[in-house]
Write a structure and sequence with these properties.
Length: about 500
């Protein structure tokens, strides 16, 4: 067991202890082989921990207390929008009528749930400026892929089979080029100019009759608004391509400007980010997509439609690209996002954007004198600073991120985007107080001073965590991917 760490569940195990009790058997007892084919029966006892209920509860409570999340501390991951998850959302999602429903029920039995889905789609149409919405994709990246498959189907339906390339900025989220490749396209990179925006002259050299689409987020991954978005729209549309909007950064512009009004043909949203659904640790996610009318017939099936005063699930969608998620997506996340939208209203969503932008600019200007600021203009909801000054002192951005752990902060995103040296990307969101922002900024300034006066304390960080600095090269090349129970047995002996 590591010094200062909690014992593993197997280390707590003692023979013949139980955390459960079962009622007496009230049916005739059978040999297992009488009711289950012997090939499915274990030949050796399952090596499960044996532990009392109290010790079991303490074990998982200790683990949860070591976990970091938005409920326990500041979580400034750039481009991830780790905002507070209002607890009213959880209350609504747990209402028995929703929590106990099942997607295999017939439409008449789940009219309330279908109404929520349909109404949610209508709200998202208004927020994005799109003509049709599907809530089916399970995450943002799947939303990207789904939209690209629809764009591909559109071009092929028009007999245009030569459009094989998708243009992606060099500052884009890594999922953008990945989604393009998985959808069968070639990803082509367009450079950023000196202001961190799409280089228009370079874009003009890339578009042509082989351009299927361009993938953009606006504001972009550097937290900067693409001021030439209408010119970008015209360049791509005149070449016959489509504009795809990565909705990861919608938190900066809700109720201010809509992707559809900028000229985008398709958009994905992250309900688990922008609309306060909890995320991290692999899910759950939700990545609805919206499209303009000419793409609508290719939406994944089924669709939730309204007929008079009732709702139904429509499976007959002849030109659909097909199903992309079992049933109709992650309903629990729809409920949380729907509650958030109805709670905030249009004025509240507008205020969200304003406060997110205010918080980011406040932090950026406070840090400007300590860290290199690669782009001087005002940012939107997130900003990028560089640790290049500190690197000259022998301390890298990675070292400063490790040192933040000693002060109880989750580090921001580092080394992304790739086009900024020693990058640190910070997104405070609108939900954090000025006191929290000041505390984080003061800590970063303090760490920068340490880098200058006592670099070893930063280079050897973290000092207060259960596990110290990892050998990241060995962890990447020789990962331990499963629990080795033999080590525990040897240690006990």
């Amino acid at each position: 067991m590591l010094k200062g760490s909690s014992p593993l569940i197997f280390e707590r195990s003692t023979e013949d202890r139980f955390a459960y009790s079962l009622p007496d058997l009230e049916v005739e007892k059978h040999e297992l082989s009488d009711i289950i084919d012997t090939k499915f029966i274990r030949r050796t006892k399952a090596e499960l921990p044996e532990i009392s209920e109290l010790d079991l509860m303490r074990h998982y409570t200790e683990l949860s207390n070591k976990n970091h999340g938005v409920d326990s501390g500041f979580y400034p991951l750039g481009s991830c929008t780790m905002k507070y998850n209002p607890k009213i959302n959880e209350k609504v999602a747990r209402m028995p009528g929703f929590a106990n429903s099942h997607p295999e029920q017939n439409d008449k039995a789940i009219q309330g749930s279908l109404e929520i889905v349909h109404d949610m789609q209508e709200h998202l149409k208004e927020i994005t400026g799109m003509d049709e919405i599907t809530l089916q994709p399970a995450a943002g990246a799947q939303g990207e892929w789904t939209a690209l498959m629809m764009i591909k189907a559109f071009h092929e339906a028009n007999g245009d089979h030569n459009r094989t390339k998708v243009i992606v900025p060099d500052s884009a989220h890594g999922t953008n080029p990945a989604s393009a490749v998985v959808a069968g396209f070639e990803a082509v990179t367009v450079k950023s100019n000196e202001r961190g925006l799409v280089d228009i002259d370079h874009l003009k050299t890339l578009v042509g009759d082989d351009t299927a689409a361009i993938m953009l987020t606006n504001p972009n991954t550097l937290g900067l608004f693409e001021e030439d978005i209408l010119e970008i729209r015209d360049i791509v549309h005149e070449a016959g391509g489509k504009l795809y909007y990565d909705g990861a950064n919608l938190n900066a512009i809700m109720a201010k400007v809509r992707p559809g009004d900028m000229g985008f043909d398709a958009v994905h949203l992250n309900l688990h980010k922008t609309f306060t659904g909890p995320h991290g640790g692999g899910g759950p996610g939700s990545g609805p997509i919206g499209v303009k009318a000419e793409l609508a017939k290719f939406l994944p099936k089924p669709l939730v439609v309204k007929e008079g005063d009732s709702y139904r699930v429509e499976h007959n969608v002849p030109d659909s690209i097909g199903r992309v998620k079992p049933f109709y997506g992650n309903f629990g996340i729809f409920l949380r996002a729907y509650t958030y939208i109805r709670t905030m209203g249009p004025d509240g969503l507008k205020e969200v954007s304003e406060n997110a932008v205010l918080n980011a600019n406040y932090m950026m200007r406070r840090l400007e004198g300590t860290f290199e600021l690669p782009y001087k203009q005002h940012c939107k909801h997130e900003f990028v600073i560089s640790g290049s000054r500190q690197k000259k002192m022998g301390v890298r951005t990675l070292d400063m991120a490790k040192r933040l752990l000693d002060f109880g902060y989750h580090p921001p995103t580092i080394y992304f985007p790739l086009n900024v040296e020693e990058c640190m990307m910070v997104e405070p969101t609108e939900t954090e107080s000025k006191e929290t922002l000041d505390g984080f900024v003061d800590t970063l300034i303090h760490i920068s001073k340490e880098a200058e006066e006592d670099p070893d304390i930063v280079l050897e960080a973290p000092h207060t965590t259960v596990i110290g600095r990892l050998d990241e090269t060995q962890a990447a090349r020789k990962p331990v991917l499963r629990f080795q129970r033999e080590d525990i047995i040897e240690e006990k002996e």
